[in-house]
Design goal:
The structure holds two protein chains of two kinds. Chain A is mainly alpha-helical. Chain A is 50% helix and 11% strand. Chain A is built from eleven helices and five strands. A three-stranded antiparallel sheet of chain A has the order 2-3-4. A two-stranded antiparallel sheet of chain A has the order 1-5. In chain A, helix 2 packs across helix 4. Chain B has one domain: TIM Barrel. In chain B, helix 4 crosses helix 5 and helix 8 crosses helix 9. At the A-B interface, helix 1 and helix 2 of A face helix 2, strand 5, strand 6 and helix 4 of B.
Chain lengths: 260, 281
């Protein structure tokens, strides 16, 4: 096992301090003929660090950046990375806290809603693969097996609520159209999922959102029926199940509790 | 599938996926950025699998932090190993630098103090990585904008010492040699002559830019065509190291695939000319 020298750790701490916070502890360690040269040599690293992180966040949140403008986005992103620097070898995860951070910073609700929607798009885009199943196994079930039937959802699926018309804003930004004004739409639920490696989304009726949440929570078919206000909840549940299967949302069927 | 790396390649970039799969291309191999595929699933890995069926691949990482003072990231190494099992790369490389400290990833290729202590530190970590991956690691020389005031080794001696002590190979980025020769005032051809002859197993060719604020420093942007000076230095590298597998590495302002294929054709001509003149000498 290699033990790094104290000097190496101190040098790295000093440069990191420069990159993240502009501290000047690194200056004395740089070979240069004068302060001007030393400043240029260090500036290139500070510029690269900041620009790289802002570029990645801009790529992960293109609609948010369009909606609030590049300068506002960059100013917020700069503050964000100071609080949430990257801690993963891949920059893929740099922006994972942005929506929560915007909310905690009391930024307008539109900012965090669009950020939440765009991050969910990314999560669905490269979530783990599972082969979806079709309705064939259901046809082999005896009627007595249906009430205890449970489901495993595909990993490439996210349910969102309270994101207003973020979907319309994201769509308009992607198409280069002028963005619609923010609208809170407090009761809307959204589903994002992936099929054939393409990310889709649609608004969910309230009862479907409740049923899907129940599925995600491990509810069995009989329990799912209890959250559906329909006159014939079993029929409604079966109808929803048919659509979920067609959309590739279901990765597993279990006639016993999968956690048992 | 080929089992040895030779010829001329390109860095795999998502904007070229379809062209590479639909048309095929006169490319001997492709280099992937490992971190781009350390994701759970979805389109990136699906495309990678299709590309891997068609082209030999090498893996090139940017976050190994081989010179870092934090412990090596075991989770990252395990993820690299899983990816290597998936794509069966002909080479695995990263950079001779540090990339993070105290658990924070800085996502830049930061220069190391060049002294014997760093050589021992890096070499020990290279051996750990090679044991974990079950494969020799290639380390790339990085562009840099400063040297540490108390460096006791120049860059060529630093690289040679790490190769000797760790058993790693070198990924020679000719553009980075050119940039560093300018930024630190050394002779690039002499630099090549002082690298261990058989250590260089892969070559990167890329473009760079002038510092926009007029410092006179060159910036390793990898966003432009290879310049005349780098082509000349590449010819010198071929004369020194032979027909080492070489590739164009474009990281930004990615042009259409054909533009990079045209640039690769220049690389083939430069290498052929250098080989011919070396044989005639």
């Amino acid at each position: 096992m290699s033990t790094p020298s104290v000097e190496l750790a101190q040098l790295q701490d000093a440069l990191q301090g420069w990159l993240q916070f502009g501290s000047d502890r690194m200056h004395g360690h740089i070979f240069a003929h004068d302060d001007d040269e030393r400043g240029h040599r260090l500036r290139l690293y500070a510029d690269a660090y900041r620009l790289r992180l802002l570029e990645v966040l801009g790529q992960d949140y293109p609609a948010l950046r369009t909606m609030i403008g590049a300068s506002t986005f960059d100013a917020l992103a700069t503050r964000y990375v100071a609080v949430h620097p990257s801690r993963n070898p891949s920059l893929r995860w740099l922006g994972r806290h942005l929506a929560d951070w915007l909310r905690a910073e009391h930024q307008p609700a539109a900012f965090s809603a669009v950020a939440q929607f765009e991050w969910a798009q990314g999560e669905v885009f490269d979530a783990a693969d599972t082969p979806p199943i079709d309705a064939t196994p259901l046809q082999a079930l005896a009627p007595s097996q249906w009430p205890a039937l449970r489901f495993t959802l595909a990993p490439a699926l996210r349910q969102l609520e309270a994101v207003g018309n973020a979907a319309a804003i994201v769509t308009a930004a992607a198409e280069g159209q002028s963005l619609p004004a923010w609208s809170a739409l407090p009761d809307e639920h959204w589903l994002l999922w992936r099929q054939d490696y393409i990310v889709h989304w649609r608004a969910l009726p309230t009862d479907e959102a409740a049923a899907l949440s129940a599925v995600a929570g491990g509810a069995c078919f009989a329990e799912i029926c209890t959250v559906l206000p329909a006159e014939q909840p079993a029929l409604r549940a079966a109808s929803l199940l048919k659509r979920w299967l067609a959309d590739g949302l279901i990765a597993g069927l279990h006639t016993q509790n999968p956690s048992v | 599938m080929k089992t040895s790396l030779h010829g001329f390649g390109l860095g795999l970039r998502p904007s070229h996926y379809e062209s590479l799969l639909e048309d095929g291309a006169a490319i001997d191999w492709l280099e992937i950025i490992s971190e781009n595929y350390l994701v759970p699933g979805g389109r990136p890995l699906w495309m990678l699998d299709r590309i891997a069926e068609r082209y030999p691949l090498v893996m090139h990482g940017v976050s190994l932090n081989i010179g870092g003072s934090d412990p090596l990231d075991r989770d990252y190494l395990r993820a690299l190993s899983r990816l290597a099992k998936r794509v069966r790369p002909l080479r695995i490389s990263d950079h001779l630098c540090w990339t993070g400290h105290g658990g924070v990833q800085l996502h830049d290729l930061l220069p190391l103090p060049q002294n014997e202590q760093t050589v021992r530190h890096v070499a020990a970590r290279v051996r750990q990585v090679q044991d974990t991956l079950g494969s020799q690691l290639l380390l790339e020389n990085v562009s840099s904008y400063y040297r540490h005031a108390d460096d006791t080794l120049d860059e060529a001696a630093f690289l040679a010492a790490i190769v000797a002590e760790s058993g790693c190979g070198l990924l020679l980025d000719v553009n980075n040699v050119y940039v560093n020769a300018h930024n630190h005032g050394f002779d690039a051809v002499d630099f090549l002559q002082r690298l261990p002859l058989h250590a260089v197993q892969q070559i990167h060719l890329a473009g760079h830019s002038d510092d926009a604020l007029g410092s006179g420093l060159l910036v390793d942007t990898h966003d432009a065509p290879v310049c005349e000076g780098v082509w000349h230095l590449y010819g010198e590298a071929v004369r020194r190291f032979g027909p080492v597998p070489a590739m164009i590495e474009r990281d930004d302002d990615i042009p259409p695939l054909q533009a990079l294929l045209d640039e690769l054709a220049i690389a083939r001509r430069v290498a052929a000319l250098a080989t011919a003149t070396e044989q005639a000498a």
